Amino acid sequence: MAKKKLVLIGNGMAGIRAIEEILQLLPDQFDITVFGKEPYPNYNRIQLSKVLQGDTEIKDITLNEWQWYEDNGILLYPGETVTKIDKQKQVVYTDKGKETAYDHLIIATGSNPFMLPLPGADKEGVTAFRDIEDCEKMIDASKNYKRAAVIGGGLLGLEAARGLLNLGMEVDVIHIADYLMERQLDHAAAELLQKELESQGMNFYLEKQTSEITGKKRVTGLKFKDGGAIPADLVVMAVGIKPNIALAQESGVEVNRGIVVNDHMETNIPNIYAVGECAEHREMVYGLVAPLYEQGQALAKQICGMNHQGYKGSVLSTQLKVSGVDVFSTGLINETADTKSIKVFDEWQNTYKKILVQNDKLTGAVLFGDTKEGTKLLSLIKKGANVQEYLESQQAGDDGESVVAAMSDEEIICGCNGVSKGTIVSAIKNDGLLTVEQVKGKTNASRSCGTCKNLVSDLLTDTLGDEYEADTKESICACTDLTRDEVVAEIKEKGLTYSKEVMNVLEWKTEEGCSKCKPALNYYLGMVYPQEHEDERESRFVNERLHANIQKDGTYSVVPRMYGGVTNAEDLRTIADVADKYDVGMIKLTGGQRIDLLGVKKEDLPDVWKDLGMPSGYAYGKSVRTVKTCVGAEFCRFGTQDSTGMGIQLEKKFEGLNTPHKVKMGVSACPRNCAEGGIKDVGVVGLDGVWEVYVGGNGGTDLRKAELLVKVKTQQEVLEYTAAFLQYYRENASYLERTSHYVERVGIEHVQEIVNDDQLRAELNARMDQALSVYQEPWSHVLESETTLKDLYQKVTAK
Amino acid sequence: MEQRTVGKVLIGNYEDLPVSLGKAVVVDDKELAVFRLSNGKVKAIENKCPHRGGVLSEGMVSGEHVFCPLHDWKINVSDGLVQAPDEGCVQTYKTTIEDNKVYVEITDQ
Ligand SMILES: Cc1cc2nc3c(=O)[nH]c(=O)nc-3n(C[C@H](O)[C@H](O)[C@H](O)COP(=O)(O)OP(=O)(O)OC[C@H]3O[C@@H](n4cnc5c(N)ncnc54)[C@H](O)[C@@H]3O)c2cc1C
Ligand code: SF4
Ligand code: FES
């Protein structure tokens, strides 16, 4: 029998979910073709908020990889728009001139963002927030522009605003109502929310209507109806969506607000169905995935010819995906004449809860601050539970039991995908699932908005007990279940001495590890046995193996050591000569006050080093990099101490030290802190008669202010405390953990306690001295070794 | 017409290849990454990551895989396939060892 031809228009969340459901019910029964306007495989639109907020990346939000389409024999036409449906001939036509016949046609075209028809709305710098393209536009804009205005203080607008803040923009939110998220929250919760968001840096204009977007080619600001105006160089419109029904309408399918469907997701035209945000069911159009997935289930059964109840509509719940803010609401949100409410407002903990009761039945809830009860309330409200049941369940929950343990099996854990506790628990048991990732793969729970991840994890703990605990610890990498601490302990206990042995004895899952654990093990071994461990060059990342920094084109950069950033005319002349001789691409000053020669060919590296005759500046290593210094007392009119001298001493002492991640230092001679010690791993500030040592600062990816470790009197003490701190960090941090993360994790007080203990400090210093005793200047070392030169630096040309 | 080498090309002595590391080898207009794996086998692939052209011979080698030095893509040196979640492949070349000499087979394509 020939397979039935199934065509899907719209490669989005609802349509593909329906296809997944169909494949589960009847694999191999249909020839499936999918047309998608966007040039990507199906991705998780919801996570765009997280992409914008920097929690994840576009490449990580794909729901169905290209391979999935292939594996399931689905013909996908990405970047292709269906322009016409011939409902008589049962054929669809695309903008690329394709014609495809169908037996069943699913329209899942989603929505379009609603763009206010304001004067100026077509200017450059005005965008919606709907798809990857919008998201990229905003990220790009944040690189060149400063001020963003978000029109719309609903869910989407606030998530966009938070994202733009994270991207470093100043953000104004313009909202037409007198409080935020007025469709999901009551006044009280909205005010708490506003306060919280203001403290995160958002600025609000409530009860404001925009009348015009100003600017020439690109937007420069907004004007309001009431006469006010604000500057803006990016405008995001998040004022709502409208179902994308044009294609259906033009093709003669009945539409109202959306494409009208019955409980079987059928339109008025035979063999044409609609699902998702474009569909209108019982006069409701939905804009969240949970109902769309329920529709998908009904639709799948319908197309597969199974008996089913049909889709009956959904109870909605919303959560705001802004870090540091927990908001939940479902059902009825505002009091009416015949509702009673349970309200708890805890000003101290800043939490708010309101539950609405109508004729003894739960009908709605708003939570702020603490949303743990959200899923429970949602399922109670869905089944029309009595208020008594809720109150009893609350008491049960108070006995220190975990929230999930108190839940009944029918209770929904993942709202988006409608996955109940029972389903998850039996999947964990029957399929031997061990991780949240596996539960997601099997049951879909936490696959969409991700807010229920914690509950899923709790369920794993609950169901598996200690077995799961063992699995949630952060292992070094996928090659082992052991954590960093366990591995280091085993190395010491069992006296393991080289990486392969570690992997072998500790039963690594891969034979030779991966790019994560290899360098980590090599580091740990060197840290535990500073004098005995033989560095494993094959476990070193290229930069550390070759002692130069690889560039994107495969050339390298060379940075000679320049203690404290101080140089002299002779060295500069030598550097200039070398640059000429080897034709370097660019000479540049680094952020750490050094000179960088970029674009050196690998084969030339040894000669470049020989001609320079200077030590390696270690600009490539997980190692002490540079000590940046200010001019200090010798020349500066504010200087109180010899900052350059101090910096040179530090750099000479710690030169070549292997550390879990790079370590940058700065020494200044007064609080003006010209060497920027506040954002260094170790920042030293000289005051009159006192040196302050700060640690754990970072000026890079995760900006963090260094914290004061200690104040001391002499240069000797600066060296001693710095050594104690660095050694303690070396011994306890995970490989690739910067001091900023490490100090944040263990707390500055803890570190202070250690280094202020005279005995511990002395011991740490002794171990540091050991570690430093094996330092060999790497460039000259390479030049001395014929084999290293041959193995690593010489190119082979076949004859 | 550009020069083409078809057939077996000698690229050097087996011992001259460093263990568990890659080596860039230029054969006419092609650059190969040749790996001497810890299991003794020698593998050759094109020396260019399908992502952004990273020099694969400088990657970290683990078992039958090399990790690109630029962005850590993981590539199988036997079949040339990029490992999930990334996608793609690189050209592989057959290698033979005779009398301690390593040859690669360059095919005309
Ligand atoms: C930033 C953001 C955050 C969100 N957060 C949440 C949340 O936390 N929780 C939640 O439940 N929901 C959230 N949503 C909403 C959720 O993403 C949508 O409800 C869901 O994606 C709708 O699925 P759909 O398949 O109906 O539409 P879509 O996912 O939009 O898919 C429709 C697809 O069809 C394509 N298409 C349209 N016309 C044609 C044509 N003629 N030919 C071919 N292709 C066509 C479109 O380009 C689109 O790719 C969020 C949305 C956004 C934008
Ligand atoms: S930190 Fe103080 S002493 Fe050092 S250069 Fe700046 S102003 Fe002068
Ligand atoms: S170039 Fe190879 S991973 Fe990016």
Strands of the biggest beta sheet of chain A: in what spatial order?
3-2-1-7-19
Residue share in β-strands of chain B: 35-45%
Number of strands of chain A: 37
Oligomeric grouping of the chains: heterodimer
Q: Largest sheet of chain B at a glance?
A: 6 strands, antiparallel
**How do the strands of the widest beta sheet of chain B line up side by side?**
1-9-8-4-3-2
Give Rg of chain B in angstroms. 13 Å
| Structure ligands | flavin-adenine dinucleotide, iron/sulfur cluster, FE2/S2 (inorganic) cluster
* Estimated structural class of chain B: mainly beta
Total of DSSP H or I helical runs spanning 4+ residues of chain A: 27
What is the N-to-C order of secondary-structure elements of chain B (H for helix, E for strand)?
Answer: EEEEEEEEE
Helix content of chain B: under 10%
Major sheet description of chain A: 5 strands, parallel
Spans of chain B of 5+ residues with little confidence (pLDDT < 50)?
A: none
Principal-axes shape call of chain B: globular
Pathway (chain A): Nitrogen metabolism; nitrate reduction (assimilation)
Pfam family, one (chain A): NIR_SIR
Cofactor (chain A): [2Fe-2S] cluster; FAD; siroheme; [4Fe-4S] cluster
InterPro entries (chain A): BFD-like_2Fe2S-bd_dom, BFD-like_2Fe2S-bd_dom_sf, FAD/NAD-bd_sf, FAD/NAD-binding_dom, FAD/NAD-linked_Rdtase_dimer_sf, NasD-like, NiRdtase/SiRdtase_haem-b_fer, Nit/Sulf_reduc_fer-like_dom_sf
